[in-house]
Write a structure and sequence with these properties.
90 residues, five-stranded mixed beta sheet, globular, hydrolase, Acylphosphatase, Acylphosphatase-like_dom, EC 3.6.1.7, Acylphosphatase_CS
Length: 90
């Protein structure tokens, strides 16, 4: 199975609402690796690695986010594969 990575930047009310925690939980549930990290500009950066199907599922989830968050938009960009262990909250 081909593994790939994608980087997402999530805009909206996504800091201070448990977004990274829920993103990590969702990533692990889908069998993905990577991380979720707050950016100084108020967005959350999410890197996910795994199969293309699971990354697409995660992308759809990020468009909504957890109930506590308000997602305005999500920008994605491909990146080279990195073998992360687990799904970290940074």
């Amino acid at each position: 199975m081909l593994q790939k990575c994608e980087k997402f930047t999530v805009f909206g009310m996504v800091q201070g609402v448990g977004f990274r925690y829920h993103t990590s939980h969702q990533g692990l549930k889908l069998g993905l690796t990577g991380y979720a990290k707050n950016l100084m500009t108020g967005e959350v950066e999410v890197v996910v690695c795994g199969s293309e199907d699971k990354i697409k599922e995660m992308a759809a989830w990020l468009e909504e986010g957890p109930k506590t968050a308000t997602v305005d938009s999500v920008v994605s960009e491909p990146m080279s594969f990195k073998p992360f262990k687990g799904f970290k909250i940074l």
